[in-house]
Amino acid sequence: MSTTGKQKWANPNSYPFNEQAKRVLSLAQEEAKHFRCSSIGTEHLLLGLVREHDGIAANVLRTLGVDLVRARSSVEILSGHGESAAVGELSLTPRAKEVMDAAVDEALRLHHGYVGTEHLLLGLVHEEEGIAQSVLGSLGVSLEMVRAKTLQAIDLQP
Hints:
The protein is an all-alpha fold. The chain has helices spanning 19-34, 42-51, 56-63, 68-79, 94-109, 117-126, 131-138, 143-155, and strands spanning 39-40, 91-92. The chain contains eight helices and two strands. The protein has a two-stranded parallel ribbon. The longest helix has 16 residues, at 19-34. The radius of gyration is 14 Å and the shape is globular.
């Protein structure tokens, strides 16, 4: 959490998101709209990570058996659909904002000069009570497994 009251990730010049991470946020918004939600939650971030095929996070999730069909089905069971379609830019839920802050923290901890999908996935692991964690649990994937596999994948990067 930020001590200044301002989200750490809100300053793209200090914490640049790579193209895949930006795409995840766009895909997460699409998922939130698909489920007729008024804001982007942790579950939508998870679905965005699964959909961004080129990122480290998607590879980790695939390795753990998380695919889009099963993840979407679990989101639908756990949270259903909203009542009306959202229009325009959606904001992040408080938990999703915490995920973003944690992603920046992970990038800093790893001495990376960017925030990528791997950091977003590690940030998601920090938020232990969101719908995304319930989705992963319903698919037989623990947060510890996600963290270990993600750190292993980062170590294998050139």
